[in-house]
């Protein structure tokens, strides 16, 4: 009886009658909980419905009944990977690839390895996937990002170019290539390719649809609107081009994220996103300015942001006395690369133990709780509750002799203000920091400290502690 029900359930599922098929699978499993095919197929239908927890339960039921069920392990691993549970996903996907090897399985295993930070495992899995399907552009793209994360950007570029030769319209791969060109210091070509970022499905900022035409960089007599895109740090970084744009128009308007508006006191034409957009004759996103202005290669320049004097005076009275150093150890947890750029504050305990200065925590968000968890309450003065916007952060920074921070928006703010800042970079840095050297072409006041190996946050400590002693 159960074999007949199972066959009918399979037929209904293939015909797209999911509800009826699920009812029959449930009936089969009520009579025989060890019916692995019924449990796995029910999981597939539940996953399509968005019932992830129920799908997980059915996949696990199938594997409990038949540990070697290659499809149940594959389906479970993929769902776990999508949910961010990479370690368990890896175990199931590795077994599924061994049981039924092929391009799709090896590619999925590579993704799990990448998510776990196992770059060697990812490289091996993607190599096996490409041996099966050499023209798989998704695998070429992922292998390129693996090489880049492992510190081999020169090996990544040919893979992206091969992928684009196979799929010239693949916007995500073209965007990845643009960022890699910028990382390699091929600025003019990188900015030109970067103009295609809006077509990439994975690009974080939606394209603005405004009634005015897009600005082409040539002088205009009327109003020019510059508008924000991407993150707060991106906006701060590219505000450096505002005056060059102002020189090419009759009047400049600058739209920024609301937390940044108080920082731009006295900037003519600045307003917050969400406010009505004033009439204007042309518009441009901030990160297009190097391309539009023909200033491809970044050049160090003077500070272009400053703290409000009244707020700065209030912070001078609020902070502990003596030489002051600020600390930020984590960025936005929603950032795609946060697991690499942020670090545990406890790793920095030897730095904080150096005598001669008072440490101020400018860490905002949930990671501010790390201070107590690491037992550093008596070492770090936590001022996060008072950092209500970036004008307050700027006023606090103005009282510091030094800021030590991971790659997040406060580093850009310190650089834009000319505050001395030591920036802690992951082994594979973001494109804007380049591959080598201690100095940034964007901000003269920044000194770059680079991880010596992937994930080696502790490897930053010898140079940091030695530099602090010398300072």
Spatial shape: globular
**Roughly what fraction of the amino acids lie in strands?**
5-15%
- Please report the total strand number as a whole number: 10
Number of domains: 3
Question: Residue ranges: pLDDT <50 for 5 or more in a row?
Answer: none
Structural class category: alpha/beta
CATH superfamily of the largest domain: Tetratricopeptide repeat domain
CATH architecture of the largest domain: Alpha Horseshoe
- Helix segment tally: 22
Organism: Belnapia mucosa
Keywords: TPR repeat
Pfam families: TPR_19
Protein name: Tetratricopeptide repeat protein
What descriptive keywords fit this protein?
10 strands, Serine Threonine Protein Phosphatase 5, Tetratricopeptide repeat, six-stranded parallel β-sheet, Rossmann fold, single chain, alpha/beta, globular, about 50% helix, four-stranded parallel β-sheet, about 475 residues
Written overview of the protein:
The structure is a single chain. Helix 8 packs antiparallel against helix 9 (137-149). This protein folds into three domains: 2-199, Serine Threonine Protein Phosphatase 5, Tetratricopeptide repeat (Alpha Horseshoe); 223-293; 309-470, Glycogen Phosphorylase B (Rossmann fold, 3-Layer(aba) Sandwich). The strands form two sheets. The protein has a six-stranded parallel β-sheet with strand order 7-6-5-8-9-10, with helices on one face. A four-stranded parallel β-sheet has the order 3-2-1-4. It is built from 22 helices and ten strands. The longest helix has 14 residues, at 18-31. By secondary structure, the protein is an alpha/beta fold. The chain has helices spanning 2-14, 18-31, 36-49, 52-65, 70-82, 86-99, 103-116, 119-132, 137-149, 153-166, 171-183, 187-194, 232-238, 242-246, 289-293, 309-318, 338-341, 349-352, 370-373, 390-397, 409-417, 461-470; strands at residues 223-227, 251-256, 270-272, 282-285, 324-328, 358-361, 380-382, 402-406, 421-425, 446-450.
